[in-house]
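Dear H.,

Thanks for agreeing to be a second pair of eyes. The structure we're designing against is below in token form, covering all 680 positions.
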């Protein structure tokens, strides 16, 4: 549905809970204008909306004067009640939570003048919905205040936290996991080696009550329906998942494993209503992950859902008992499977999917009775719109758009595709073609995702893809082996195969488009960030005649250097173990799979982009590649982003990057390249 078509949608319920959508006809746009780069690189002015437990109010997280703030509206008429922010020009609202119908808590992040990265402070603030009783209740400034209201009972905590339970019988407190900080360089950072504490935190005074600790450093806690912490889930220094369990808060923690169970790497998700059964996911052998209900007393299990081709993705919960009502899989586009099809959440979700065709629906928050909810409606060509939904009668009112300046009808659809590799493996991906391409062969950008392990490309709005399509480029995304989402074997077969098997999958998908007469073999470039940047450079090394150019952003180019520099080996608890497993250890082999040591094989033109504050992949990686290219007098283009880390947070830097990228692509495979060929 076009954003300009309607700003309020009325949904009327029938006896079967189906919905009729009343709206104006969507405008048909034949000629798509070249939209400003800023339309795509601009940060959303509206981030999210959360409904209160009683449904009478909603939080709207938005921007005011360049800062993230949040407002409270009355749901019956969307009348503003208050606007709440945090003092200090560099402090921004991050996440906001309802604790009760009156009181909210929120976290903040900081920005710095010469550092564009976002730094979560770990602090927690409490405020009433009318803006009163606004206090810092947790963090290193809680006792001192430092420009915020303070309370004498609050404690100074050099730590961050995670909310693990809203206490049903105590509306003045929450349960948090307390993660100690340690000083790393110039910043206080989360200490992955410290064991978390469990604390009950008074959301009005900031007073904390100690309830013990978790047995695994850096782990997360899972509570039952009584808010008792029963599971601790973490990883050890060898990068193995470890789980501890206790029957009651007074019981000793024990290592948890399931005997005579078909699943591998079981992970508890939530407790069922009886508090003795737990929902969990596990790989079926070396395959994809299934959903189970496991009885903790008699050690029996029931398989609730399994797809042999793709892992379970999103899950929909009952807000009262935490039952899992539906799950989603995504081989191509999202597909939903309703475990309890008669539940209100399932009925509402199905009805909304019918009413917003070709869109996906995410219920972001709801009241316990599901009489009111806030839903996100989004698609591959829609950044997302938020609606306030009431179910008696059923009605959806438009709240806001995440990127209101983008007209969805100007964007293009993304098509799921699959390919068969040279060794017979079926791999999946996405193809986005520019509007009006028809039977013509547009210039192609192969866009491998980062990660690489545990990460996959998915069907949703991706601004980089849409920007490239708006400029006339087709984009290919490939879930190569090593990607997450397609089972244990599919992911682990990529271990030690960076630049070889994983690269061949990208190559095979690209060549398939050439063989199908979809892509022009003379107009293909490869571009990616992080591991995708590595894959871009290895692409032009292993296939020097396939790509005309390569763009590496925040890429890894020297695999041995990964073991020496960056936060993976030097800060993450299992960082070195991960590198040994995922990348390999043999130095000669690592060099054979590193762009730095193979620059003599490159024919394509090169653009390198890197942030000088990157800790995950330090800029020394890109500088090492520069030295190697200079050594053979191979020209390249270079862009260093001041103050940026592994991700580009600053809108101006994102725009600057894409001005450089688009000019580079135009020169190599775009209209300018055709003019150059004609002149030659």
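And this is the sequence the design step returned. I haven't edited it by hand at all.
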């Amino acid at each position: 549905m076009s954003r300009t078509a309607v700003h309020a949608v009325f949904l009327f319920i029938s006896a079967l809970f189906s919905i009729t959508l009343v709206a104006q006809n969507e405008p048909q746009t034949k000629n798509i204008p070249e939209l400003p780069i800023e339309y795509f690189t601009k940060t959303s002015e509206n981030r999210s909306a959360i409904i209160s437990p009683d449904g009478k109010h909603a939080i709207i997280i938005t921007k005011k004067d360049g800062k993230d703030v949040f407002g409270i509206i009355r749901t019956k008429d969307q009348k503003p009640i208050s606007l709440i922010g945090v003092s200090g020009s560099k402090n921004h609202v991050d996440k906001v939570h309802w604790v009760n119908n009156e009181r909210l808590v929120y976290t903040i992040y900081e920005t710095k003048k010469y550092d564009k990265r976002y730094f979560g402070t770990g602090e927690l603030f409490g405020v009433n919905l009318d803006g009163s009783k606004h206090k810092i209740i947790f963090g290193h400034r809680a006792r001192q205040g430092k420009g915020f209201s303070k309370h004498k009972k609050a404690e100074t905590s050099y730590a961050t936290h995670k909310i693990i339970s809203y206490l049903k019988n105590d509306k003045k407190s929450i349960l948090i996991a307390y993660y100690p900080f340690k000083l790393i360089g110039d910043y206080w950072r989360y200490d992955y080696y410290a064991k978390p504490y469990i604390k009950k935190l008074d959301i009005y005074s900031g007073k904390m009550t100690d309830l013990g600790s978790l047995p695994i450093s850096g782990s997360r806690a899972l509570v039952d329906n009584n808010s008792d912490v029963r599971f601790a889930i973490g990883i050890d220094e060898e990068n193995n998942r470890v789980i501890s369990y206790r029957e009651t808060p007074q019981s000793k923690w024990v290592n948890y494993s399931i005997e005579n169970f078909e699943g591998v790497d079981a992970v508890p998700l939530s407790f069922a209503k009886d508090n003795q059964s737990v929902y969990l996911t596990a790989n079926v052998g070396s395959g994809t992950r299934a959903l189970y209900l496991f009885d903790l007393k008699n050690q029996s299990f029931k398989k609730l859902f399994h797809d042999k081709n793709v892992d379970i993705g999103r899950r929909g919960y009952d807000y009262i008992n935490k039952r899992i009502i539906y799950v989603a899989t995504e081989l191509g586009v999202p597909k939903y499977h309703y475990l309890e099809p008669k539940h209100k959440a399932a009925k509402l979700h199905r009805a909304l999917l019918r009413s917003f065709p070709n869109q996906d629906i995410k219920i972001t928050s709801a009241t316990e009775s599901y009489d009111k909810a806030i839903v996100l409606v989004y698609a591959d060509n829609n950044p997302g719109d938020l609606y306030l939904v009431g179910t008696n009668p059923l009605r959806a009112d438009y709240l806001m758009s995440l990127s209101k300046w983008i007209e969805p009808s100007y964007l293009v659809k993304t098509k799921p595709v699959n390919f068969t590799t040279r060794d017979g493996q079926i791999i999946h991906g996405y193809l986005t073609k520019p509007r009006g391409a028809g039977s013509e062969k547009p210039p192609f950008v192969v866009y491998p995702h980062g990660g690489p392990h545990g990460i996959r490309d998915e069907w949703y709005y991706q601004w980089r893809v849409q920007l490239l399509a708006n400029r006339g480029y087709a984009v290919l995304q490939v879930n190569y082996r090593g990607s997450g989402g397609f089972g244990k074997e599919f992911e682990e077969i990529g271990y030690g195969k960076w630049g070889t098997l994983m690269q061949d999958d990208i190559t095979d998908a690209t060549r398939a488009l050439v063989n199908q007469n979809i892509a022009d073999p003379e107009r293909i470039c490869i571009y990616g960030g992080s591991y995708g940047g590595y894959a871009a450079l290895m692409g032009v090394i292993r296939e020097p005649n396939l790509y005309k150019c390569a763009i590496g952003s925040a890429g890894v180019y020297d695999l041995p250097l990964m073991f020496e520099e960056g936060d993976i080996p030097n800060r993450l608890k299992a960082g070195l173990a991960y590198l040994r497993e995922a990348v390999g250890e043999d130095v000669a082999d690592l060099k054979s799979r590193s762009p730095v040591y193979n620059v003599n094989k490159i024919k394509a033109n090169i653009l390198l982009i890197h942030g000088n504050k990157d800790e995950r992949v330090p800029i020394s990686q890109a500088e090492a590649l520069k030295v190697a290219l200079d050594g053979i007098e191979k020209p390249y283009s270079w862009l260093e982003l001041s103050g940026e880390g592994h991700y580009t947070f600053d809108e101006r830097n994102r725009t600057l990057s894409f001005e450089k990228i688009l000019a580079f692509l135009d020169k190599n495979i775009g209209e300018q390249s055709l003019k150059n060929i004609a002149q030659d």
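Two observations from my side: The chain has twelve helices and 39 strands. Residues 4-29 have pLDDT under 50 and may be disordered.

Warmly,
E.
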